[in-house]
Amino acid sequence: MATLRIPKYAYNGLRIILTLDDPTFELLLETVSTLPPTAYLKAVDDRIQRTAKLPEESVREIIKALLVLYNLRADSKMPVPEFALAMREAITDQKIIENVTVEQIQTRMVRLLGFEDSFGVTTKAQNVLNEYEHVLCSVRILSDVRAVFPEPLGTPLGAAIVHNLKISYHEGTELKEFFVAMDGNDVKRLRFLLERAEQKAEHLKNVLKAATVNYLED
Question: What is the pLDDT of residue 183?
Answer without folding.
Answer: 94
